[in-house]
């Protein structure tokens, strides 16, 4: 019995010594690696917004976060909240420094990736089982350290909104990062958050909600505040947009209660609208005087005549969170709203957008500048205007051929074409055709140059009709010389149209639209 106890105590003492040695070795490795990291941060952050003292503080804080083991749910939640609270407490100018250190020091360990990648190559000749195991190791090494932390932050109350706001900060500050190396690390950081948000904001986790004048005041106020396409002027304007012959739908998310993620404004009409003014400024349906009914607040609302509703016009869609940029939510919202409207109105057979054309005027001015410059230095260039358009402009403006492009540019920049009916009529044809070219022909990497066109075409819509003087607000004139476009949704062919556009870059357009730009190629 004594001998057994003696041997047992000897083994126990050896076990404790071995464990202690391991702990000491771990601490030694940690202490050795820490000084190596610090000079690298100080060196690569030399052009950052904070000094080395601020970087040292950030690094020490992050070491405490990433070195703390997750011993239980409470400890994990406490660690995540410490990270969120620390970042939220930073001044705006300090957040970029924090994010650059985080993205560089706690991303992917490149040396480990290279080592494991070589193991994958060597494992190819040693059997499929070993190859699969090595590939799994490689997959794990390609996961940034901060991704695991972000996944855990997403589980705590307010954590998803925190990550949305953090990504918004990254997108805001990323263009100002001077170091190309740090910019690359920051880009991976925001892409990692985007991928997590894309999973959390999939359609199954989103809730469709219709907003009316009776909805909670804070939600109605946010609808007004977030409207970016056609700013809401006053309370009467707001009430009209959520009232009769209008539908305002939002997507909400369970992790962001009371916060509209995407907002879609829809007008219920008898035909596809060609002007935003008929939607925003007409208090009644098509100007008709229909039977009113009194609402609970004493105002008079218009009773909807279902027999006169045959078209749904999507005239404004707004993503409210910059941090969700690149996460496809608008597509889901339009499809969900179409089903909702079909259930409510069996007579609706036409679904279309009435969309702005941001960027057209800037593109046209750039083209005119380029051609004017080539003209001045005596070089030949492709013709921007057709001969009959040149002749019409010469006659209306009483100028020579040499001055047509420069005069047209000045007219567009100063908006003088609006003030004269003859000049307005002379520029109408060229502007319509060139805008059609901008939407239908001008591409970037095979896709439509215009971002709104790219969105609707990717959803399977048809480039249907271009509308002259559709938005004569200063915003509309500055964006697109007052023009707007209808993207028509034919429900039976949206999937096929989307596939052709995304796979083959084929834009489906109506014969009317194609004829408008047939000479633009």
Describe this structure in words.
With 521 residues, the chain is α+β, with helices and mostly antiparallel strands. It folds into four domains: 1-40; 45-108 and 143-200, Butyryl-CoA Dehydrogenase, subunit A, domain 3 (Up-down Bundle); 208-350, Malonyl-CoA decarboxylase, catalytic domain (Aminopeptidase, 3-Layer(aba) Sandwich); 360-516, Aminopeptidase (3-Layer(aba) Sandwich), CATH 3.40.630. It is built from 21 helices and eleven strands. The protein has helices at residues 2-44, 52-67, 73-89, 92-105, 110-123, 128-141, 145-153, 159-173, 180-200, 217-226, 235-241, 277-280, 330-344, 360-376, 387-397, 404-414, 421-440, 451-458, 474-480, 494-504, 511-516, and strands at residues 206-211, 246-253, 262-269, 292-294, 300-302, 311-319, 350-353, 443-444, 447-448, 462-467, 484-489. The strands form three sheets. A seven-stranded mixed beta sheet has the order 1-2-3-6-7-11-10, with helices on both faces. Strands 4-5 form a two-stranded antiparallel ribbon. A two-stranded antiparallel ribbon has the order 8-9. Helix 7 runs parallel beside helix 9 (180-200). The longest helix has 43 residues, at 2-44. Mean pLDDT is 85; it is low at 1-50 and 284-300.
């Amino acid at each position: 019995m004594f001998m057994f106890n003696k041997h047992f105590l000897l083994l126990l003492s050896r076990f404790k010594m071995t464990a202690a040695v391991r702990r000491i070795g771990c601490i030694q490795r940690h202490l050795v690696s820490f000084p190596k990291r610090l000079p690298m941060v100080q060196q690569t952050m030399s052009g950052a917004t904070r000094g080395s003292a601020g970087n040292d503080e950030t690094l020490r804080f992050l070491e405490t976060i990433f070195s703390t083991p997750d011993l239980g749910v409470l400890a994990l939640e406490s660690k995540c909240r410490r990270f969120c609270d620390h970042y939220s407490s930073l001044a705006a100018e300090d957040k970029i420094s924090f994010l650059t250190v985080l993205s560089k020091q706690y991303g992917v360990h490149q040396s480990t990736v290279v080592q494991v990648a070589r193991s994958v190559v060597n494992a190819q000749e040693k059997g499929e089982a070993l190859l699969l195991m090595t590939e799994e190791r490689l997959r794990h090494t390609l996961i940034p350290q901060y991704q695991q932390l972000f996944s855990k932050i997403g589980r705590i109350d307010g954590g998803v909104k925190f990550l949305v706001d953090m990504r918004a900060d990254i997108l805001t500050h990323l263009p100002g990062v001077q170091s190309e190396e740090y910019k690359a690390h920051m880009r991976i950081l925001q892409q990692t958050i985007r991928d997590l948000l894309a999973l959390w904001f999939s359609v199954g986790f989103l809730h469709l909600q219709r907003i009316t004048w009776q909805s909670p005041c804070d939600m109605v106020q946010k609808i007004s505040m977030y409207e970016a396409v056609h700013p809401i002027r006053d309370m009467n304007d707001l009430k009209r947009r959520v009232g009769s012959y209008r539908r305002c739908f939002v997507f909400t998310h369970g992790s962001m209660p009371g916060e509209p993620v995407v907002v879609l404004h829809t007008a219920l009409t008898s035909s596809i609208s060609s002007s935003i003014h008929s939607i925003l400024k007409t208090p009644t349906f098509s100007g008709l005087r229909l039977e009113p009914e009194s609402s609970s607040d004493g105002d008079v609302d218009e009773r909807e005549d279902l027999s006169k509703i045959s078209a749904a016009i999507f005239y404004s869609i707004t993503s409210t969170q910059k941090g969700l940029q690149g996460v496809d939510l608008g597509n889901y919202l339009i499809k969900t709203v179409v089903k909702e409207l079909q259930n409510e109105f069996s007579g609706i057979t036409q679904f279309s957008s009435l969309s702005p054309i941001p960027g057209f005027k800037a593109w046209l001015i750039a083209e005119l500048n380029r051609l004017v410059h080539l003209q001045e230095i005596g070089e030949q260039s492709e013709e921007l205007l057709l001969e009959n358009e040149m002749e019409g402009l010469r006659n209306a403006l009483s100028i020579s051929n040499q001055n047509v492009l420069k005069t047209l540019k000045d007219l567009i920049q100063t908006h003088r074409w609006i003030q004269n009916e003859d000049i307005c009529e002379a520029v109408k044809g060229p502007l319509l055709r060139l805008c059609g070219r901008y939407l239908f022909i001008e591409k970037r990497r095979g896709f439509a140059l215009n971002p709104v066109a790219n969105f609707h075409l990717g959803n399977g819509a048809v480039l249907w009709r271009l509308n002259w003087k559709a938005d004569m607000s200063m915003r509309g004139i500055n964006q697109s010389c007052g023009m707007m476009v209808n993207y028509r949704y034919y429900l039976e062919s949206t999937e096929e149209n989307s596939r052709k556009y995304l796979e083959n870059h084929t834009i489906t357009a109506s014969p009317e639209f194609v004829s408008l730009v047939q000479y633009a190629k």
